[in-house]
Amino acid sequence: MAKKDPIYQRYMAAADADSTHAKNCKNCVGSRRCGAGQQLWTAFEKAQDAHQQRPWSERCR
Ligand SMILES: [Zn+2]
Q1: d(CA 8, CA 3)
Q2: Is residue 1 a part of any domain in this protein?
Q3: pTM assigned to the model
């Protein structure tokens, strides 16, 4: 299975960006996010939706 799946990679990158931000940001505490953190979270949710809404046959695992 090819790992070059743009939707999956965007999903992973968004998850990474979100968790990195949450770890380093003093204004994000638990589920309370700062403006930038909230944007990253929204981007992550969108990427996750895009990834999960695809049929199994298109998914790369
Ligand atoms: Zn933050």
Answers
A1: 8
A2: no
A3: 0.78
- What's the 14 CA to ligand 1 centre distance in angstroms? 14
Report the separation in Å between the CA atom of 45 and the middle of ligand 1, taken as the mean of its atom positions: 16
- Residue 32 φ/ψ, nearest 5 degrees: -90, 120
| Relative orientation angle of helices 35-52 and 6-24, to the nearest 10 degrees | 150
How many domains would you assign to the chain?
Answer: 1
Distance CA 18, CA 40 (A): 5
Q: Is residue 47 part of a domain?
A: yes
Q: Which residues surround ligand 1, an ion (CB under 5 A)?
A: 25, 27-28, 34, 37
In this prediction, residue 22 has a pLDDT band, given cuts at 50, 70 and 90, of very high
